[in-house]
Amino acid sequence: MSKARHAEIAGAGLGGLAVGIALAQRGWRVRIHERSAELRMFGAGIWLWENGLRSLAALGVEEVATRRAKRIETLVARDQEGKALMHRVFGAADRMLLPPRADLYDALIARATELDVDVVASSVIVGGHPRGELEDEDGKVWKADLVVAADGVFSRVRESMLLTQRVDYLDEGYTRLLIPRRDGDPATEITEYWSGSRRLLYDPCTDEVNYVCLCCNVDDEAGRRVPVDKESWLESFPHLGGILERIDEVGRWDRAMRVTCRAWSRGSAAVVGDAAHAQPPNLGQGANLTFQNALSLAAYLDRHHDVPTALRGWERAERPLTDHVQRWTDLYGRVASAWPDRFAARRSQVLEFATRVPWVAKQLNKAARHVPVGAP
Question: Is Oxidoreductase set as a keyword in this record (predicted)?
Answer without folding.
Answer: yes
